[in-house]
Write a structure and sequence with these properties.
Elements (H helix, E strand, L loop, with lengths): L7 E5 L10 H13 L5 E6 L3 E2 L3 E3 L15 H4 L9 H13 L5 E3 L6 H10 L7 E3 L2 E2 L4 H11 L7 E7 L5 H4 L2 H4 L5 H15 L3 H5 L1 H4 L3 H4 L7 H10 L4 E6 L2 E2 L3 E2 L2 E5 L4 H11 L1
Parallel strand pairs: 1-8, 2-6, 2-8, 3-7, 4-5
Antiparallel strand pairs: 1-12, 9-12, 10-11
């Protein structure tokens, strides 16, 4: 195994136009990629791919899916010509199967914008193999935490896990008056700060029960798919992981763009932090 010290990442991917206008949130993703060792493959979990059972994408060459409408023409010309890694894909399938998941494979699906937006900002050359894994339809945080936990061994073997969503995601508010008026509803920052506080102290119980405990949870996420990738990243990092807030900010009035790295307790990064904390 490679002593990679890789974290699992949660990236806020925002609107599709982020790839054309990265802003500070995109710059933060580029910085973390530059600071990490080069992964041998990237396991990507996007809010925009859900299926009944966890599914591993194994297409040899991934089509760039433009799964949106009404955006500038330049956005539809963006391509991210990534290739797969059959060995890593098979290892992901095996790990999920051994954990009891009814895992499937998909031989043709490309990369949606939730995957290729952060990938293009972080690794624009598209020269690192990518293995997409789907979310689960109709279930909440706990099965996704378990999914991440099953994939955890890959982090210690040179694979970066990139989970892509948004810390808040309410499209009705995105299209509504608060954005047009330039004001940010209070719930956006209140929900984002509640999540960070509980991530920072490792309060797994409260995080898994966020729907009942976090302020404005239902308004922050009328549907859960943009938050669920965070639980995959958290599960993959394992018990005792050290969370690092890579970026915090709000885009378009209602999209909390926070991104995090979750450093496994066994990584050199986490050990250095622990050593510093006791000195």
């Amino acid at each position: 195994m490679i002593n990679s010290s890789f974290p699992s990442l949660f990236a806020g991917h925002g609107a599709p136009t982020m790839v054309l206008d990265p802003g500070p949130a995109g710059a933060a993703l580029a910085r973390v990629a530059a600071d990490l060792p080069r992964p041998r493959a990237i396991l990507v979990v996007s809010a925009h791919w859900q299926s009944e059972a966890p599914t591993v994408g194994v297409a040899p060459d991934f089509e760039t899916i433009h799964d949106f409408s009404g955006f500038p023409a330049a956005l539809y010309r963006v391509r991210y010509p990534a290739r797969s890694d059959p060995g890593v894909a098979e290892e992901a399938r095996r790990l999920l199967g051994e954990d009891g998941f009814d895992v499937r494979v998909d031989c043709s699906r490309g990369l949606d914008h939730g995957a290729w937006t952060p990938l293009r900002l972080m690794y624009p050359a598209a020269d690192i193999p990518v293995v997409p894994v789907s979310l689960l339809s109709g279930v909440g945080p706990e099965p996704h935490f378990r999914l991440g936990r099953a994939l955890a061994p890959l982090l210690a073997d040179g694979v970066l896990l990139l989970a892509s969503g948004n810390l808040t995601h309410n499209l009705a508010d995105f299209r509504g008056a608060p954005v047009a008026g330039g004001e940010t509803p209070a719930y956006v920052s209140e929900f984002a700060e509640w999540m960070w506080r509980h991530l920072a102290i490792g309060d797994q119980r409260s995080l898994l029960g966020y729907r009942q405990q976090a302020p404005h949870a239902a308004r922050a996420h009328p549907s859960e798919e943009h938050l669920l990738p965070l639980y995959v990243a958290l599960g993959a990092a394992g018990a005792g992981c050290r969370p690092e807030r890579l970026y915090a900010g709000i885009d378009s009035g209602v999209l909390a763009m926070d991104s995090f790295a979750f450093w496994p307790a066994t990584s050199e990064h986490a050990q250095d932090h622990q050593s510093q904390s006791v000195r």
